[in-house]
Design a protein that fits this description.
heterodimer, A: alpha/beta, Urease, subunit C, domain 1, B: 323 residues, Rossmann fold, 2 domains, five-stranded parallel sheet, 11 helices, 38% helix
Chain lengths: 445, 323
């Protein structure tokens, strides 16, 4: 698949609304968009009727847990990247908390290679910041950056790099290769044993609380560190109104910080925890309606740059148990677009152009992913997605490609459906169902 | 109502029905032959994931006095400690034919999981879950308060609520399932509840609860409440900086001898002391207070059996309950 020039089938996408605006035909040939406009089908391209569909650049997830190596019962690179393709993604960043941890060039190259062999999306491994996610010693960031996986994003996600000196050093060190530290902002001492958002609901339910200040204090510290050392900081899954204020302040000061919000934090609140159903257990926890409103507004005005799924599949036995024993995390790849449409587009907060920015262009820039998040224009790589905004569908976790059945949206009717996903000019998804992976992928290595 | 998970879910009418039924059960407990045939052939499982001899024997006595078959399942030392899940345990009890499961669990919400999943059909009674609720404790406290009030006023307690009764609850509210269940139940029944604790031992957001909150025990006692409920305080909380020392805790929030001496004043003549047990004498309560005639502690224990009989009876056999 490195050879983009070999003759491949051509596709003519008829009448798509580019970024939800003007209608145009898109000709996809040899992995690229060869023409955009009112096109005649001169050389026998396969015609795909895109009337009523919105064309967007393929989505790029900055925050995905693919679980391989180590927890192949939860997800594999194969199943996770299938789910990604179905969700309209053409690239995902695989978080480092696998077993073994992705803290060496060997592990990130393995994940990268698995992604190439699967052939559904670009799998961009995230490297751990510290050895074993232990928060004590820097992992070999340079080796991972220089490996075949070309890692640019580093994160101990799931665990906060809470030692301020270590965080400072990591921010400084990644400047050597234009890297970014993606921080899971959670002050560990303030959240020991935490089970849910600390607030009125946790008080009633008797579940130890995860206070907003535990997130906000780390973000405040980190933006100041990023400013001090002149480095690039990405804040994972921002979940509170207070965090939004701090990020807004940091950006106003010119600090190089980007922020992410998950689809579930754009919609769900801690009221759902009253059911004690662990499908709603996630880290950071579901917050309050006030936080949801602040996050939506922040994504709309660009204070929050991107939507990252934090797709976190778990085996059912880790959710079919008591709340306190349950694993934290929710699946998200196959519902993200629909949730964003419901919470942001249908509320008038975000245009489809804004969706392209938050789900493709800026995520690609943060991860320094070449050939992703590019404009829908002649000569650009043909990574794109066709969305039917008029579709309505009901979430059935058992029908999803991810192995995880832990969708908090199960049973909900959602708007918007991914009709087709083109990955380097090849349709990984057609008519809303998986097609074939990128040709020749399985023979890789 | 099929389960008893929380007092927050109870209406005043439901709560009064339980208390009135408990009065009938108490009459049985006063007889020489303390047994009713109501639950003959039915099986009650006491599923205890936490050691609690007091609560377990109270439920066991209640079930046996209703002629139910009782299985005590102490999860410690069983297959559960070898990693069996709550789901598998529940399905095992279902297969054995449990009609009711009385569950004590260290995880808040574990009884909700049993009641709301398809793991088991039995009636679920929450016998204390984590720091969430302990509804039968609150019901027996309400029962005790209602009886005391009726005695003072010379009226019949049956049918009555707790309108106007002033109750001060003192101690580790943050970690107390007893406090939560009592706040909801006593206020539903019309009582006025004041929580007293160091600020560190009050939950975030407590100001939204339907009660008053104070950091000052002496101030809360100033207008001679009808009842003072002292909660157990674990000395280990000191190590997590909830308070500086047990001595300081006792001085500020304990019912020690000096504070208890105020009860000799005329306006305190009908004030009673409650404690859910087990008591930590010398920390939250002095022996003089605990052993005084104001103490309702042993009455609470006796009333607990009647209340639990009422709950099991209503959940397992009464057709019209919660109509």
């Amino acid at each position: 698949m490195t050879d983009d020039t070999k003759a491949a089938p051509a596709y003519l996408l008829r009448g798509a609304a580019l970024y939800g605006d003007e209608r145009a035909d898109i000709l996809v040939e040899n992995g690229r968009i060869s023409a955009v406009g009112s096109l005649a089908n001169g050389n026998g391209a396969t015609v795909i009727d895109a009337e009523g569909l919105v064309a967007l650049p393929g989505f790029v997830d900055v925050h995905t847990h693919l679980r391989e190596p180590g927890r192949e019962d939860a997800e594999t690179v194969e199943t996770g990247s299938r789910a990604a393709a179905l969700g309209g993604y053409t690239a995902v960043h695989a978080m480092a908390n696998s077993t073994p941890v992705a803290d060496t060039a060997g592990v990130v190259e393995q994940v990268h290679s698995l992604g190439r062999r699967a052939g559904w999306v670009d799998v961009r491994p995230v490297g751990a910041v510290t050895v074993g996610l232990a928060g004590e010693q820097l992992a070999e960031l340079g080796a991972m950056a220089g490996s075949a996986a070309r890692v640019r994003m580093f994160s101990d996600d799931g665990i906060c790099v809470h030692d301020p000196v270590l965080m400072r050093r990591a921010l400084e060190y990644v400047k050597a290769f234009d890297g970014v530290v993606a921080q899971h902002a959670q002050e560990p001492r303030l959240t020991a044993g935490a089970q849910m958002n600390e607030g009125a609901v946790s008080a009633v339910l008797g579940l130890p609380g995860w206070p907003a200040v535990a997130e906000e204090s780390i973000i405040a510290r980190d933006v100041l560190l990023a400013q001090h050392v002149g480095s690039r900081l990405h804040v994972c899954h921002v979940s509170t109104a207070g965090s939004v204020e701090i990020v807004r302040w940091a950006k106003s000061r010119g600090i190089d910080v980007t922020a992410e919000v998950t689809p579930h934090h754009l919609w769900l609140t801690d009221e759902l925890v009253r059911s004690y159903d662990p499908v709603y257990k996630v880290n950071p926890p579901l917050r309050t309606q006030e936080d949801v409103e602040a996050l939506r507004a922040a994504l709309a005005d660009g204070t929050i740059d991107v939507v990252g799924t934090d797709h976190a599949p778990h085996p059912s036995e880790h959710k079919e148990c008591e709340w306190a024993q349950a694993a934290m995390g929710m699946t998200g790849l196959e519902t993200a677009l629909s949730v964003v449409q419901h919470t942001m587009v249908e509320t008038g907060l975000l245009t489809w152009r804004g969706v392209a920015r938050a789900m493709s262009e800026v995520p690609a820039r943060i991860g320094r992913v070449a050939d992703q998040g590019r404009p829908l224009a002649q000569g650009e790589p043909a990574n794109l997605v066709l969305v039917d905004p008029a579709a309505r569908w009901t979430v059935d976790p058992a029908a999803q490609a991810t192995k995880g059945r832990n969708s908090p949206f199960a049973g909900r009717e959602l708007p918007g459906r991914v009709v087709a996903t083109f990955f380097r000019g090849h349709p990984t998804v057609r008519d809303g169902v998986l097609n074939e992976p990128y040709p020749g992928s399985a023979e890789e290595r | 109502m099929k389960h008893l998970l929380s007092t927050r879910d109870l209406t005043a009418a439901e709560a009064i029905q339980i208390l009135d039924t408990a009065e009938e059960m108490a009459a049985v407990n006063d007889r020489e032959v303390k047994k009713l045939p109501a639950l003959r052939g039915r099986t009650v499982v006491n599923l205890f994931f936490e050691d609690s001899t007091r609560t377990r024997i109270s439920f066991e006595a209640a079930a046996k006095r209703l002629s139910a078959d009782v299985i005590n399942f102490a999860a410690k030392g069983s297959s559960v400690s070898k990693g069996e899940s709550l789901k598998d345990t529940a399905q095992t009890l279902e297969a054995i034919g449990a009609d009711a499961v009385v569950i004590r669990h260290p995880a808040s919400g574990a009884p909700h999981r049993l009641a709301t999943t398809d793991w088991i059909d039995a009636a679920v009674v929450n016998a204390g879950d984590g720091t969430h609720e302990h509804p039968t404790q609150a019901l027996l406290d309400a029962f005790t308060l209602r009886r005391h009030r009726a005695q003072v006023a010379g009226i019949d307690s049956v049918g009555a609520d707790l309108a106007g009764t002033r109750v001060v609850i003192v101690g580790d509210i943050l970690h107390s399932r007893v406090a939560r269940s009592n706040v909801w139940l006593l206020t539903t029944l019309g009582a006025k509840v004041t929580l007293v604790a160091p600020p560190t031992l009050l939950p975030y957001g407590v100001e939204q609860w339907p009660c008053d909150v104070s950091y000052d025990l002496d101030a809360a006692l100033a207008d001679a409440p009808d009842a003072v409920m002292m909660l157990r305080v674990q000395a280990e909380r000191m190590n997590a900086s909830y308070f500086p020392s047990t001595a300081e805790y006792s001085r500020l929030w304990g019912l020690g001898d000096e504070r208890f001496a105020r009860f000799a004043a005329p306006e305190f003549k009908d004030t009673v002391i409650l404690h859910p047990g087990p008591m930590v004498r010398g920390l939250e309560i002095s022996s003089a207070a605990a052993d005084s005639e104001r103490s309702q502690v042993l009455r609470q224990v006796a009333n607990g059996v009647s209340v639990r009989m009422a709950v099991l009876y209503l959940l397992m056999s009464a057709k019209e309950f919660a109509s």
